[in-house]
Amino acid sequence: MEQLYIDLENYLGIGTDSVPEVVRLAIAVLVLGTIFLLAPILTIWVERKVAARFQNRIGPNRTGPYGLLQSFADVLKLIGKEQIMPAHADRIPFLFAPLLMVVSVIMITAVIPLMPNYIGADLSIGALYFVAIGSLSTIAVVMAGWGSNNKYALLGAFRTVAQLISYEIPLVFSLLVPVLFAGTMSMVGITQAQADLDYWYIFLAPASFLIFLFSNLAEIGRTPFDLLEAESELVAGYQIEYSAMPWGMFMLSEFLHAFLIGPLVAVLFLGGWDGPFAEDVPVLGVVYLVIKSMAVYFLGMWMRATLPRFRIDQLMEFNWKFLVPLSIANLLIASFLWELFPEPAGGGLVDNFPRFIVMGGSSLFTLMVGLEFLRRKSVEDRERIARLIDEKNYPLATADQTGVAGD
Amino acid sequence: MVKTRENISTKPFSEWEGSIDELKGLVSDKAMTGESMLLNMGPQHPSTHGVLRVVLELEGEEIVTAIPDVGYLHTGIEKNMEAKTYEKSIVMTDRTDYLNPMGNGLVYNLAIEKIINLEVPERAQIIRVILTELTRINSHLVWLGIHGLDLGVTSTMTYCFREREILLDLFELVSGQRMMSTYFRPGGLWRDVPEEFEGAVQFILNIFPQKIDDYEALLTRNPVFIDRTQGIGFMSAEEALAYGLSGPTLRASGINFDIRKVQPYSGYENYDFDVPVGEHGDVYDRYLLRMEEMRQSLRIVEQGLKKLKPGPFRSDNRKYVPPPRAELGRSMEAVIHHFKLWTEGFRPPVGEVYQVIEGPRGELGCYLVSDGSPYPWRVHFRDPSFVHIGALQHMAKNHFLADLVAIIGSIDIVLGGCDR
Predict the structure, then answer these.
(1) What is the DSSP letter of B48?
(2) Of A234, A239, A237, A261, which is closest to residue A249 (Cα–Cα)?
(3) Is pLDDT larger for residue A264 or for residue B48?
(4) Residue B267 CB: number of other CB atoms within 10 A?
(5) Please, which residues 146-185 of chain B have a Cβ atom closer than 8 Å to chain A?
(6) What is residue B108's predicted lDDT score, i.e. its pLDDT?
(7) Measured between alpha carbons, how far is A228 from A222 in angstroms, rounded to an integer?
(8) Rounded Cα distance, A258 and B325, in Å
(9) Quick one: CATH architecture of B1-72+388-420?
């Protein structure tokens, strides 16, 4: 943040001493916040275009060159629309939910190192901060679902609580692997460690990378984990009663959060701003970061265009019976091997090659074993269901059993 | 300033909400006291395929009872048809099940032909079969797209509608209308197919098998799709028969019953095709079965195209079928017939018939009563959508809310046909 401001005032030619500290920080926050708030407008356009190509459509192409201004037009429309609050809505949660949602997502941007020396706040607990702030959005969703006085919204909020809280566990376990490797929780430290090593943690822990990616997708509620706003079931889930700009704020935070997964994955597993000449020419760092982020974002869009949606029980089973054990096993194996195979003296790519093989291989092996278990489990499940159907016991009448008997 | 409804409505909330007493006996007592949730799904809901309303009693996310409520798209088509002559009311049939316009026209025309014992020339029958089978593919394509959308696969819809566009262009080519074709007439067709027809059908035959493979590549072995559909919405063979299901929904339960085979019409007995039969009776089997049905329909179309020979495209029974335009200049008799048919209409003998065909959704029946006047005394369509919605409650019981959406998709209802 300091660096950002110093560069800014050098550029504008203002003296450093003439401005109080608070104003400096405020300006830097404003610049950083604006950059990240404008990012979704472009990523929405990218997403629309890419999704359109996946789906044999053209996408927006009327407003501005290549439809680039479509999102601006949408925002203008949203600002001009009437805000409607349903009768008997709980006012305070209803009105504050969108605000909390946006704030919780924007606060994540503080710990993303954009390029060498450029970060909102280099917290010593950056990784922990990200997890803590990211789960604030759960509260916002519950507030929206409760405040809306709508059953669909409430169902969406129920689903959200179950989903987001569960997926936080594999998220943290997979996040711990790069933290362990780097020996620090600071995002700058993790990036710097990878830059110093000349290779990225994805080669050492590919399984953690995938677990982190998937639990993040679940965390932001994208296909195949988009149960919180499942259009075909809950219409729009917790957003159902929102209109105009509050709805726009939900969409903004959703797209911003989806976009932020890219930089986070890039920082933790793909070396952040690391790349050729990034330390000499810092601006290149941003370019690398954006390229890596968009590659991760593209994965998300691809899945969104291809996969059906999980059902809530399948979602929970996938988490508790697959991702959580796998991430714990992965963390244990990674930490053992990290101690067993210490960093060689040279530290170059060639010297490290045996480590790549052992650590990356064991990580992939863990993943494969996990997937094989998952496959067998699901085959078994299908056979069980087929058997139950034969015995006319499916679907199980759990609803009758869980009810309070004799009431 | 945020506006609320409280500013407008002065009624207290309890009155404004209305009473739920009419649900007494339909839902459990727990729902009446508010212990479990009553959810009104539809008629405005993205996955109720139009305007189906389902009143749900939920225990968490599980469905205790699902009560379907139909009638929101009732347009009085059957009653309106009584006020039109036989030929003029054909146009109404397209509007019932709007994804199966050719099939509706076919069953109505077959019923008229049955009541007056009218012969249909070979060429007209073959063209009818080709177009009805293409309509079946059209309907299945829409079904697949929307079914995918229900399960969260946003892309199937655009892929299926891309191919559907080719079919609609063909319908426009023959009838001048993309969806509401009104192409079949008593005794044959409205007019002969244009020259480009055979080429257009051949084009469809060339590209569609590959496209159907593409859809299957996206879904058939997709683990998420399999998990979402296998074992869901189960109907055993006995239950399916007891609920009067028909078409793919019945065949998925393992009963080989296809009206094209058991009561052939329009010369279906001359075509070689297989009837796919499922074994589990769940959503996944219904999906597989419809995919196979599309391929079989293509087979029928291919055979039909080979059989297609030049010839008359409608009957020359001038009492019921208007003479060709060219004859009007030469023959006084033709002018009289033309005048009679287009002012008064024809008068079928007194009687009643019931005609069934195999529609894309199942057994599509037409019950027609004639009192000897130019107007049908009663027309009734037995639409499979209506019957299938009746089985919804049984199929959805104890499933999750998300499964209900899959089940509604799998029985392939069209509310236009259900409510008429």
Answers:
(1) S
(2) A239
(3) A264
(4) 15
(5) 148-155, 157-159, 162
(6) 92
(7) 9
(8) 66
(9) 2-Layer Sandwich (3.30)
Look at the alpha carbons of B109, B110, B112, B117 in this order and tell me if their dihedral is positive or negative. positive
Burial (CB count <10 Å: 0-12, 13-18, 19+), residue A6: middle
Mind listing the pLDDT tens digit for each residue in B19-35? 667 777 777 777 777 77
Question: How many angstroms separate the CA atoms of A246 and A251, rounded?
Answer: 9
- Mean pLDDT computed over B80-95: 89
A407 touches chain B (CB under 8 A): yes
Q: Is the pLDDT of residue A272 over 80?
A: no
DSSP 8-state assignment for residue A320: I
The structural domains of chain B, with segments of one domain joined by +, span 1-72+388-420, 77-382
A345 touches chain B (CB under 8 A): no
Joined together, the tokens standing for residue B401 give: 């809310």
Tell me whether residues A56 and B231 touch, CB distance under 8 A: no
DSSP state of B348: P
Interatomic CA distance for residues B284 and B152, integer angstroms:
15
Query: pTM (2 decimals)?
Result: 0.84
Report the residue of chain B nearest A398, measured CA to CA: B398
Which amino acid is residue A215, in one-letter code?
A: S
Give the residue-averaged pLDDT of B207-217.
89
Percent of the residues in chain A that have a pLDDT greater than 70, as a whole number: 85
Give the other-Cβ count within 10 Å of B148's Cβ.
25
Sorted by sequence, the CB contacts under 8 Å of residue A234 that are 6+ apart come out as A152, A155, A156, A159, A228, A240, B401
CA distances to A232, A354, A400, B242, B398 from A397, rounded to whole Å, are: 24, 54, 6, 22, 6
Pairwise CB contact (< 8 Å): A82 & B403: no
Tokens describing residue A204? 């050492």
Alpha carbon distance, N-terminus to C-terminus of chain A: 62
Q: A232 vs B150: CB contact, 8 Å cut-off?
A: yes
- The better pLDDT of the pair A354, B83 is held by B83
- How far apart, in whole angstroms, are the C-alpha atoms of residue B225 and residue B215? 12
pLDDT digits (tens, 9 = 90+) for B118-158: 888 888 999 999 999 999 999 999 999 888 888 888 888 88
Q: What is the DSSP string of B353-417?
A: EEEEEE-SSSEEEEEEEE-SSSSEEEEEEE-HHHHHHHTHHHHHTT-BHHHHHHHHHHTT--HHH
Q: Which residues contact A20 (CB under 8 A, 6 or more apart)?
A: none
pLDDT of residue A400: 41
Do B186 and B86 form a contact (C-beta atoms < 8 A)? yes
**Region B352-381 average pLDDT:** 90
* Residue A200 region by backbone torsions, left for phi larger than 0, else alpha for psi between -120 and 50, else beta: beta
For chain B, give the mean pLDDT.
85
- Of A364, A321, A357, which is closest to residue A208 (Cα–Cα)? A364
C-alpha B366/C-alpha B353 separation (Å) is 8
Check whether A397 has a pLDDT greater than 60: no
Name the architecture of domain B77-382: Orthogonal Bundle (1.10)
Q: Which residues contact A253 (CB under 8 A, 6 or more apart)?
A: A98, A101, A102, A104, A105, A106, A137
Report the alpha-carbon distance of residue A267 to residue A184 in Å, rounded: 13
φ, ψ of residue B27 to 5 degrees: the values are -115, 170
Same fold flag, B1-72+388-420 and B77-382: no
Helices (H), B28-116: 29-33, 77-81, 90-93, 101-116
Q: What six digits make up the tokens of A356?
A: 């790549």
Alpha-carbon distance A179 to nearest alpha carbon in chain B (angstroms): 32
Mutate to test the interface with B, among A239, A311, A379 (most CBs of B within 10 A): A311
Q: Which residue has the higher pLDDT, A10 or A166?
A: A166
Inter-chain touch A311–B162, beta carbons under 8 Å: no
